[in-house]
Structure formats: C-alpha cells, structure tokens
From TrEMBL:
It comes from Lysinibacillus pakistanensis. This is Sigma-70 family RNA polymerase sigma factor. InterPro entries: RNA_pol_sigma-70-like, RNA_pol_sigma-70_dom, RNA_pol_sigma70_r2, RNA_pol_sigma70_r4_t2, RNA_pol_sigma_r2, RNA_pol_sigma_r3/r4-like, WH-like_DNA-bd_sf. Signal peptide: none annotated. Belongs to the sigma-70 factor family. ECF subfamily. Residues 6-75 form the RNA polymerase sigma-70 region domain.
C-alpha cells in the first residue's frame, strides 16, 4: 500500500463514514485527519491478504478514533459538571479538616512500600491506566491492578499507622 496516495484515494470515503457517525462536519474532518494519522502510524499492521479490505481497516480505525473522542468528551463533561457543582466554602474549619485529611492520607501513603506507594500515586495522581502503570514499572497490567488494590486495602483497614 502506497502511503502517499492513501488520503487521496480513501479520504472522502472515511470522511463520509465519520460524518454519518458524528453528524458534525467539523468533527468529522478532525477525526478523519486523526484516522489517517493513526493509519499511517500502523500501516505495517495491515496485511493485504485479501481477507480484509483496506477501506474496512480504515473504517475500523475511524470508529476507534470516534469512540476515543466520545470517551474524551464524556470525561470532559463530567469534569465541567463536577466543577459547576463545586460550591465555594468560606468555612475555615471545613477547609482545615479537608487539608488535614489530605495530609493524613499522604502520611499513611508514605508508610507503604515503595512499589505500592508508586502504584498508588501513578493511579490517583497520574490518572494512568493499570496497563500504563505496569509498563512504567516493568510489570504486568494485572500486577499493577493487584498491587493498587492491596495498597488501598492497607490504607482502608488502617494497617499502616503513622508514627510521628
């Protein structure tokens, strides 16, 4: 498959497919660009053995790009909603207690083993998936998931006691 002619040959087809999914011209254009970017990055994974048409392969990439966009928008909307629901408090006592809870959490988390603490921070503060965490620390996705769960359980059960 010649990379240079892919967009000229299939661009309109993919755009119309995405337009049918999104019903929005501008979004379909943006997703079409992302689709071809992803296709060029992974063109070596397409095997022209006649079982899957190239246009079908492009549509599957387009659909994944669209689903990722939907998920991204959902998360963005949830954040906007949570921020709009957030009420500003002027109660200094509540602010102090909230800070104390945060300090206590980090004191307890600091008492975890290095691996558990790292997994906890990557998941909660880095908002990374278990697959990404496993990749970072050189372990499996399942290992990261189990280690995170065990760290949470230690914190929840109060197994770790902070000694000042």
């Amino acid at each position: 498959m010649n990379k240079d002619n892919i967009y000229q040959e299939y661009g309109d087809f993919v755009f119309r497919y995405l337009l049918a999914l999104t019903n929005k011209h501008q979004i379909a254009e943006e997703l079409t660009q992302e689709t071809f970017y992803q296709a060029i990055k992974s063109i070596n994974k397409f095997h022209d053995d006649g079982t899957v048409k190239f246009s079908t392969w492009l549509c599957s990439i387009a659909k994944n790009v669209w689903l990722q966009e939907l998920n991204h928008n959902k998360k963005r909307n949830q954040l906007v909603e949570s921020l709009s629901d957030f009420k500003v408090t002027t109660n200094l006592e509540e602010d102090y207690l909230r800070k104390e809870d945060k300090v206590n959490f980090f004191k307890q988390a600091h008492q975890l083993s290095d691996k558990k603490r790292e997994i906890l921070y990557l998941r909660l503060l880095g908002d990374l998936s278990f697959k990404e965490i496993g990749s970072i620390v050189g372990e499996t996705e399942n290992w990261a998931r189990v280690t995170f769960y065990r760290a949470k359980e230690e914190l929840r059960k109060g197994v770790i006691r902070y000694e000042p």
